[in-house]
């Protein structure tokens, strides 16, 4: 079976989700999986500008991004010109596809429209990478949706998607986040004093810190904390943080995020969908500042309702003291770890290949 996963660099969450899906499906027999950046494939000359514009909107003018995000859901159809149809023809022919998986809204819309035009029977599966779901995720010719929580399923049903087309599987993360912590990672992550807490600070794939300098300054001054900031590819943030916060270990890009998460007592971060579910898999409670981006608001509410972490008001002037109290509440942290395990235990053990094979069996029956 030949499968392609269509993803995009709108932040790195979608790409990480695609990597996790690919890793999982490649464990099956007779399955070949390819990951394709949909924007690069369909719009090769303009994809760089599209991604650059997205990053600019999210980091500099999030109000406009929120407006466009809501507005985009009002349009059910996408323009599919002949040239774009031919590009999808080429995608299908080049990979000799038996299945298409999408983890960004635009690819689901385009492939759905293509299936109508070409009367194509190749099954299309969609993974939704946030808890909140907008209409932009919904397309006519999607075989099944894989979602992170029952609230996402309910929202889809309210928007007209049949219940039997939705599986609650959690947002996919790579297997390394589920594995037990292994010794041997860098010494800076190993607590040298029994009473010190390990705090990991992450800013998401775009390298944006989750709060203001006051919270980082508070962490820098805490005597009972070892703090590590992963800044991703944001070189300016690396340089700034090293200069301003000498007691925080600052790291740029790393491929050992899972090790850092599992070695930490608390993760201070933006509530992105992938980061949230990586933390759940790692059983590490979250501390997030109330976000502004629409999709992250839904993720933050999920964290709050499920008891997976602390969501602090963005206008709270005492975030440092609030975080310190959170770190000192060992009973609460243990309770949150248990809540994370219960969330994981609730997921359905199904994926697109499994669903496809079950469908074939039902046909033959």
Offer a few descriptive terms.
six-stranded parallel sheet; alpha/beta; Rossmann fold; 46% helix; globular; disordered C terminus; 365 residues
What's this model, at a glance?
By secondary structure, the protein is of the alpha/beta class. 46% of the residues lie in helices and 15% in strands. The relative contact order is 0.12.
What does this structure look like?
The structure is a single chain. The chain has 365 residues and is an alpha/beta fold. The chain has 2 domains: 2-170 and 348-364, Response regulator (Rossmann fold, 3-Layer(aba) Sandwich), CATH 3.40.50.2300; 178-345, Glycogen Phosphorylase B (Rossmann fold), CATH 3.40.50. 46% of the residues lie in helices and 15% in strands. The protein is built from 15 helices and 12 strands. Strands 2-1-3-4-5-6 form a 6-stranded parallel beta sheet, with helices on both faces. A 6-stranded parallel beta sheet has the order 9-8-7-10-11-12, with helices on both faces. Helix 6 links the parallel strand 3 and strand 4. Helix 3 crosses helix 4. The longest helix is centred in the C-terminal third of the chain and has 16 residues, at 330-345. The protein is globular. It starts with a strand and ends with a helix.
Structure annotation, total helices: 15
- Kindly identify the CATH topology of the largest domain: Rossmann fold
Total strands: 12
Strand proportion:
5-15%
Largest sheet: 6 strands, parallel
CA gyration radius, whole angstroms: 21 Å
Largest sheet, order of strands side by side? Answer: 2-1-3-4-5-6
- Uncertain ranges: 361-365
